[in-house]
Amino acid sequence: MVWVLIYGVYPDPGAGNIEEKNPANGFIIYLMKHERIIFRIREQVQKTIMKKPSITRCLLCSAAFVVAITTGTTGKADDTASSPPKADSRMEWFRQAKFGMFIHWGVYAVPAGKWKGKDSHGEWIQLTGKIPNKEYEEFPKQFNPVKFDGKEWAGIAKQAGMKYMVITAKHHDGFCMYDSKETEYDIVQGSPYGKDPMKSLSKACRDAGMTFCFYYSTVDWHHPEYPAKYSQREFHGNPNPEANMAKYADYMHAQVKELLTDYGPIGLMWFDGGGSLKKNPRKAELLKGKSLVKMMHKIQPNCLINNRLGYGEDYGTPEQHIPKGMLNKPFEVCMTLNKHWGYNQADDHWKSAKTILHNLADISHKGGNYLLNVGPTAEGKIPEESVRILEKVGRWMAMNSDSIYGTTRSIYPDIPAWGRITTKEKQLYLHVFKRPKDGIIHLPAGTRAILSGRLLAAPQTQVQVTHQGEEFLVKLPETLPDLVNTVVVLQTR
């Protein structure tokens, strides 16, 4: 948000968007928002000003200056600017990373998606299977992930080119995947495993040069103080008619404090209510969001917050879809690798490495991040097919990651039929999915002057670029060396 100083007189009370600061000699300095200027002068003050020409000149000059820097030469605000939004220093690592691993792991991996003859369940199995707490509590007793290896998980993510990891500390079922002092319903006290996997995983992530982050569900189907009326489909494993949302909010705050205190630097907190309270205007109030965010920023000032808490958001989270066009704010697309977030043994509807790489380029073209999910087994292993697909993604990233990391959205407004474009300083990266029939890519000449071109994965292979009228013509090789995504680097002025 850009603020500018304006010297003026007391405005009409209905003017809005103006914050009074310091009165002096009947005049006030105001801070006015960049997006909107409202400057009205009361009649009685106008008469006063007319008696003081020197002050009038000062006011007019100040107002003209503000209009000039706010609206440009036309004097009209431009709400359709195509340049990417500026992010503060807290967002810098997020903007650089671009690609992360989402992990949905919990006791729902025990039934592996199957319940009473149906094998279509996932991490919501308690709700979709309508399982009461007493029955669901049998799953933790069987949860013993002895094959879990934090270093292995971090290694899989790093090899795939992922720069950060977000893992479920607590999902909607209320079972905590870390050692919580607020409940015994956790992996240390409530399962035969008896250890805290988040300790070793957080260390392994940082040792691998990745940023470690937590997912935390704001809804809880197990906690006695979470009211069923605020849950998805008003479900609760053991509904309590006397449930007190304020008490639950305090419990949630205490757990978030644990996560931000006991596991080192946390890149972001990924809150999620699974749609609960989504349309409730009191969401932030019910969750005591303002005080929660204040506490979070006090403990870890650089920790980012997604947009599902209802307060304090740093970025948006489109789920299972990519926005059609450019967005004027930071965002992160989260997607499953197959059709479920949590482990489902029967789900073999896997995305191909090609689809993932096209998604990554498409999201980067639009200025966002890609958070791709895996659902480990109850034994603590990331499924073999997930690993195989991510290995393919990693081989492409090893040669072409410069076209993803630290890039900003395309400088061109249109989305090309042949692929996508990412931008970094004086480089343009053309992600070519499909070679045009004539082998020529047309780019407008009025945006940037293009000096040269080459293949990113084969720097010695030059790509011919010519300037013709109002276009630059980029001539592609007769055969694209990478049929999934060949990246051409254009050096610009």
In a nutshell, what does this entry contain?
Helices cover 26% and strands 20% of the residues. The protein has 493 residues and is α/β, with parallel strands linked by helices.
What does it look like?
There is one protein chain. The chain has 493 residues and is an alpha/beta fold. Helices cover 26% and strands 20% of the residues. It is built from 13 helices and 17 strands. The strands form three sheets. It has a seven-stranded parallel β-sheet. Strands 11-12-17-14-15-16-13 form a seven-stranded antiparallel β-sheet. It starts with a strand and ends with a strand.
Give the tags.
493 residues, alpha/beta, TIM Barrel, Immunoglobulin-like, 3 domains, 7-stranded parallel beta sheet, 13 helices, disordered N terminus
SSE order, one letter for each helix or strand: EEEHHHEHHHHEHEHEHHEEHEHEEEEEEE
CATH top level assignment of the largest domain: Alpha Beta
The CATH superfamily name of the largest domain is Glycosidases
The total count of helices amounts to: 13
**Major beta sheet, strand line-up:** 8-7-6-5-4-10-9
What is the secondary structure topology, with strand pairs?
Blueprint: E1 3-8, E2 18-24, E3 27-33, H1 43-50, H2 53-71, H3 92-97, E4 99-103, H4 125-128, H5 133-136, H6 138-142, H7 150-159, E5 164-170, H8 197-207, E6 211-217, H9 245-262, E7 268-272, H10 283-286, H11 289-299, E8 304-305, E9 332-336, H12 353-365, E10 369-374, H13 384-400, E11 419-424, E12 427-432, E13 440-444, E14 450-455, E15 462-468, E16 471-475, E17 486-492
Parallel strand pairs: 4-5, 4-10, 5-6, 6-7, 7-8, 9-10
Antiparallel strand pairs: 1-3, 2-3, 11-12, 12-17, 13-16, 14-15, 14-17, 15-16
